[in-house]
Amino acid sequence: MGSNQELIEDIKISLLRQIHDEFQKMKVSMTENFRGLEATMNHMVEIVRKMKAGDGTASRSSQTVSSYPNLSIGQSKTSPTEQR
Fold first, then answer.
1. In a domain, 24, yes or no
2. Is 78 a domain residue?
3. Helix, strand, or coil here: 35?
4. Which pLDDT score is estimated for 54?
5. Residue 3 to residues 8, 10, 11: CA-CA distances in angstroms?
6. How confident is the model at residue 72 (pLDDT cuts 50, 70, 90)?
7. Would you give the DSSP letter of residue 32?
8. Mean pLDDT, the chain, as a whole number?
9. pLDDT above 70 covers what percent of the chain?
């Protein structure tokens, strides 16, 4: 019976490692997507700033956008470091 328990524990450990690996892949993918979004939003903010500074045709709603600083996405201080 002891070997069955060990086999079950090994399967559990293997599944947990696979799940962890999938979560890590998702984390990397999400980070890449957020960085792409960050670049797009920063580009949009720059366009609005140029419009506002140019001929004054920027709409009232875009005037508040120009006061936002450029976005930055960094490593979360609460995210665990990979342990292997």
1. yes
2. no
3. helix
4. 83
5. 9, 10, 12
6. low
7. H
8. 80
9. 62
Distances (CA, A) of 7 to 16, 20, 21, 24: 14, 20, 21, 26
* Residue 75: pLDDT band with limits 50, 70, 90: low
* 3-state secondary structure (DSSP) of residue 67: coil
Say how far apart CA 53 and CA 46 lie, in whole Å: 10
Instruction: Inform me whether the pLDDT recorded for 76 exceeds 70.
Output: no
Q: Residues 6 or more apart from 41 whose CB is under 8 A from it? A: 71
CB-facing half-sphere around the CA of 53: CA atoms within 13 A: 9
Domain that holds residue 43: 2-65
- Classify residue 30: in a domain, yes or no: yes
What is the CB neighbour count within 10 angstroms for residue 48? Answer: 19
